[in-house]
Amino acid sequence: MHVSHLADAEALAGLGSTATGLDSTTAALRLAEYGPNRVEDMASAPLWQRLLQEFGHFFALILWLAAALAFFAEWRVPGEGMWQLGVAIVLVILINGAFSFWQEYRAEQALAALRQLLPLQVKVLRDGVLRTLPAEALVPGDLIELEEGDQVPADCRLIEARGVRVNLSTLTGEAQAQSRNAGSDQPGHVLDASNLLFAGTALVAGACRAIVFATGMRTEFGRIAHLTQTAGETGSPLQREIGRLSRLVALFALTLGTVFFGIGMLLGLPFWSNLMFAIGIIVANVPEGLLPTVTLSLAMATQRMARRNALVRHLPAVETLGSTTVICSDKTGTLTQNRMQVRQIFAGGRLLAATEAGAAGLLRLYTGAHYGHQLKLVVQEGQPRWLGEPMEIALLEFSAAAPIPSAQVLDEIPFTGERRRMSVIVSHDAADWLYCKGAPESVLPLCATWESSAGLQQLDTATRQQITAAQEAMAAQGLRVLAFAWRRVDDAADREECNLVFSGLIGLADPPRPEVPAAIARCHSAGIRVIMVTGDHPRTATAIAREIGLIRGEAPVVILGDALRLMTPAQLQIALDAPEILFARISAEQKMLVVEALKRKGEIVAVTGDGVNDAPALKAAHIGIAMGQSGTDVAKSAADLILLDDNFASIVNAVEEGRAVFENIRKFLTYILTSNIPELLPYLGFVLLDIPLPLTIIQILAVDLGTDMLPALALGAERPQHALMRQPPRARDERLLSWPLLARAYLWLGPLQAAASLAVFFTVLSVSGWHYGDALGRLEPLYLQATSACFAAIVIAQMVNVFLCRHPQQPVWHFSLGSNPLLLAGLLFELGLLLAIIYLPIGQALFATAPFAAGFWLMMLALALLIGALEEARKAWLRHRSALRHHP
Length: 888
Prior knowledge:
This protein has about 900 residues and is an alpha+beta fold.
């Protein structure tokens, strides 16, 4: 039989304890048997192994292969600059891997956060003496004492309780504090037991003595922590796309290298020379700058999102947000303020808004009698603030406008689950008074008269029906309804709750955050579905959902936790097809079931939450979003994104940034891939047409890891366009590397750049008297000038191309240079690096370059502008076709 079903004495005996607690010897033996009262760390990969994993993913393996081939070529044919290429590629791998590892390592502190949530010290009865011991020393059978404000250190069974109320929101999501009392309880769900306290929750009122029955990982807290630790990591869409891109690039590069190695052998080229050029073709088709550009672009996006109060813990989560199709949101503290507020009152036979003048004075509401031991006035950041149960604070704030006499609290009749009410006896105005508040169905039967606008009157059947109707009207709005009554007593010993005077009703609510309705509307316009998943009451959840615009229909589907427990996975997936659905009274495991069902339906799922109960679902979702202010450390550690201002609207801003990241990656992917064609075609011409090699491998490296890098980053920093949030999420099968992108880069812009650069190369040669078939030495000045001019032509074309890539269809003049300051910096860096490579001795030595006639710069610029004009003509044609489709 569970400890909650036993009588107090049986509970003590069942746990091998007594009314004076455990003796030290028994406690020591149990500590050795059960272990410390803490959340244990699960076995995980050591840091060195996790670091090595950053250097072993598929794209990194491609770069390792390219570096190995470069070193092999240098060994076989020294002096071709292949060692510089190999070293540069290895540095790219190391820097990118170390950066990614550091980003992940800083954020993985979930277990430390779990331990911080547990109290460090606790009062324990050992050997009949009350001692203060570390919470880790607790064992089953220990007797502990707690008072208001304390956090519960382990799962406990109450033995003595005085007005205990506990906040379970970190475990259940329920915003309202629950009463707890000693004595046996009826069988039911363990979290609903009226005599149990759970680790990680907090006492908001009262004091108690309790016996520990579960510690560490055996607690409800530890069980949820275990779910968080064992929830599998979900790869982001971007990670999957980068993996797909890596495979395509590897296949394309290796295929071309192999094919042209075979062609070279058929043409009779020497084996080692042929192998060198095959390696050159492979290197030319591996965009070495892609991986660091993606990583740095995501890092810059995290900085922009941080300025918009969204802190990203995992880099791929930036782009995942942009592909989100469903947001599963908690209610308390996420959509609402987690602060109770009086909304309506019923007094004098009238239903009034709480904001109406004099509303508080219509009720005989002596709140001051209720907070004597339940609320504490503290000073935080120089401002006075009440700490305690949110409902009591709301009543105090509401009654502040009404005169409250100075009084002394004489006695209290505490709240219990059976009574569903509490009373206090106070002395003021030379008399003693009993004030009662509680559930209307508990308080109203005790009343004989009521305060009407004409004075005290008998409480007849018609008036009772009127009061009940007012109660139902408040409840229909999702308000928590309290009834208030009073009577004068002869002395403090008169504790009878009978013949009371009904004073009125108060309806309280946890109000929505004011910015949430607009944020929900933006989600709808962006095609993102928002589903409320809460542990709160279904009527409250429905009312809040309707108030914020989450549901608009007359009959939304509301699924309770008990019903969800009986559903098969197929039934749950079918239920999720409902246009408007919300989940109430949901447990931690059930929240995960909802997330998994949505993922099986092919949705990209984001989950918001702030409690310990939310952590497993936060980790299981494609992206977990935790509240930075009200959220527990556990939730923050399990999440990918933390809202620094607890503002649901910040999610929408983050989604906008995420969508921009995907579009920006496409922009700089187009930019980077474009230069692959003018890097590749020179090799094809060399092998097939027997011409001098127009571009060396080291110059390819200068483009990929030098001149292209900062402009590509500038494209990754483009600001989101407003139209992004008026479009639905992109299709699940939409690829980062799409055919239109490949066609634009490889079949249009790339060939144009190749033609321009080869035109410059051959012009430099022909002006100096070179003829087709003439041999050129690798270090001959004319050859160095021609390759330098070819290299420079590619860079100049890329300087124009960066403007063309800002949008696939809109013209360049739609975007001001000032809207992206990094773009100007990138162009200046690109031009400066180009001039340094051509004119500085160190650049000439490293990249085998030489200065050429100044007139060729004008030719390059003219050809680059021609490429720009041709691309703008293509864009105009596409816009014209699009306009005809929409307006035939």
